[in-house]
Amino acid sequence: MATKRCYYEVLQVSRDADDSTLKAAYSKIAWDNHPDRNPDDPDAEARFKEASEAYQVLRDPQKRQVYDRYGHEGLESRGASPHFDDLNSIFDLLGGVFGDLFGGGRRSRGPRQGRDLQLNLTVTLHEAFTGGPRTVTIPRQERCGTCSGNGMKPGVEPKKCRRCDGRGVLLQGQGYFRMQTACPACGGRGVDMSDPCPDCHGDGAVVREEAIELTVPPGIDDGVTLRVGGQGEPGETGAAPGDLYVVFQVERHELFARRDLDLHCEVPITVSQAALGGPLEVPTLAGEMRSVEVPRGSQSGDEVRLRGQGMPSLRGKQRGDLVVHLRVVTPRALTKRQEELYRELAELDESHVAPERKSWLDRLRAFFGGK
Known about the structure:
- The protein is of the alpha+beta class.
- It has four domains: 1-111, DnaJ domain (Helix Hairpins); 113-156 and 195-251, Sandwich (HSP40/DNAj peptide-binding domain), CATH 2.60.260.20; 256-330, Urease metallochaperone UreE, N-terminal domain (HSP40/DNAj peptide-binding domain); 340-371.
- It has helices at residues 7-11, 19-33, 42-58, 61-77, 87-93, 125-130, 271-276, 336-351, 355-367, and strands at residues 117-123, 132-143, 169-172, 179-182, 205-216, 225-228, 244-250, 256-259, 262-270, 278-283, 289-294, 303-306, 322-329.
- α2 (19-33) packs antiparallel against α3 (42-58).
- The radius of gyration is 33 Å and the shape is elongated.
- It starts with 6 loop residues before the first helix and ends with a helix.
């Protein structure tokens, strides 16, 4: 996923910029990059949307406070991150900015598709290994049934907003750089909102939670995004709903660590097991014990592989390996018999020097001048 740029960098303003500075900066960038003025530049629309997103956040005191403290992740975790599905979304949210400059504002594209939603879903490493069904709760914004979406208290006769004379927008600026902004008195609706709907508080929409069942694909990894078609917010009448984008996060496991498709596990062995080698029972993420062969003379940090016991691939039938990291454990408390045996072994080590130890002793003598 692409990393978002700093909103202050996008608008080319300082972090202490006031409302007028933000508006002026946004006006210039939006004017220069408006798609109607740049039909041959495919990147202009992206820059226009990026500036609109930045302005939408920074002009809102609450969103700006969250962004200044926690950044983009803070906005997303609080559901305050702006989402623009198309250019109509920008014109709606900003109250038809530049409508008078570009021939009447909002483009006529028919019923608008519902907004996409994003869900951050945490799964265990075992769930990522096996895959399977998972029930999640999705909050969706839907039309208020009490007021039928108009935001007015039932039975109240709508009246024209006095401040904007029912237009829903106010014209600001002079000369060439005139801007339309949403009327603060009516929120761009063009009607008096002094007696709003008690259920949606004048928004015309309410949040409903719905439980849906997803399928976690085997092999899913951190940061992988799954698109679930039609599970976003409902569209306007005659339009399709948006989609749901599920971003996966995989929890750490107490025994296994994942690196690409391989699983890694550290297993302790005794000194005698390391010296003599032999079969060793190790756990797998599938919940089974498998036997591996420890080579004679193994050292701490040596690896033994179990082929095909790692993570499944999201594409195809390929599987990683289980990499067993051997850790030789020296006993801290010995029985009397163990101590006798270790002392006997120590005497043998002095009289029968292993080739590796002899080589090290030879280098040591050379360092001290042969003494």
